[in-house]
Amino acid sequence: MALDPIHAFYCRKDFLDLAQACKIKSNGICAICGGVFDISYLRAHHKIELTLDNIDDPQITLNPDNIEVLCHDCHNLTHGRFGNTVGQKHVYLIYGAPYAGKNTYVNAVATRNDIVVDLDAIHRAICICGAYDKPDAVKRVAFNIRDMLLDEIRTATARRKWQDAYIIGMYPDKFDRDIFVKEYNAELVHIATPKVECIARINQAGLPTSARDAAVGWVENYFARYRD
Fold it and tell me: What is the pTM of this model?
């Protein structure tokens, strides 16, 4: 499933650069509530909502006059992301190859009220390890934490205070993705970056040789297994 045009737009560098510039220009002030926040807690919100009819119009999508900077709470109240109703929980499975841009996408659209489940981040949180280094001694703990979070998402009711959930992973096998659709009512978001671009990003990342080789190996494995 290809990334739809609206989702894809939020991954684009020109939008991410514009959003960051708008947040800096705001001096951390939310345009609605007037509160002052660290810019990492702010979101660039399109006053005219993006639709399939206007997504190719830069006067809408990339016009600073059409963007206001909001805090997370005001953003949730004003702009129910992708048509979501405030208070209604949604689950997104963000999948694709290593270095495809999955985390970049989630960082652009998620808020501090959302749950993000990322096994790589869990490993880094519980032990001293680098990218693609998952010590055998803590794997069971990392998987248990991930499964606890997934169970929270699967069984959550509207009374839970968190808003939406973003589950990040490669998930090249359609069978595994279908489980999330069936059991979590998840929306699939495929970050469909080509293999050559993923490998180019790895080579530009300045990783140690062992980590670089491991990352390239995971990319090759993903594309060998991927089925739409």
Answer: 0.67
β-sheet bridge partners, residue 224: none
Cα 216 to Cα 4: distance, rounded to the nearest angstrom: 26
Question: Per this entry, what is the length of the chain?
Answer: 228
Measured CA to CA, the distance from residue 103 to residue 100 in angstroms comes to 9
Tokens of 28: 């951390």
Task: Please provide residue 68's backbone torsions phi and psi, each rounded to the nearest 5 degrees.
Answer: -120, 150
Amino acid at 128: I
Q: 122 to each of 46, 102, 117, how far by Cα in Å?
A: 32, 16, 8
Element (H, E) at 46: strand 42-46
**pLDDT of the chain along its 228 residues, tens only?**
445 688 788 888 899 999 999 999 999 999 999 999 988 888 899 988 888 889 999 999 999 999 999 987 788 777 554 444 445 688 999 999 999 999 988 988 887 778 999 999 999 899 988 767 788 899 999 999 999 999 999 988 767 778 899 999 999 999 999 999 999 999 999 999 999 999 999 999 998 898 899 999 999 999 999 998
> Could you read off the pLDDT of 70-94 as tens digits, one per residue?
987 788 777 554 444 445 688 999 9
Q: What is the DSSP string of 79-126?
A: --GGGPPTT---EEEEE-STTSSHHHHHHHH--TTSEEEEHHHHHHHH
| Nearest by Cα to 111 from 167, 162, 187 | 162
Whole-angstrom distance, CA of residue 77 vs CA of residue 167? 23
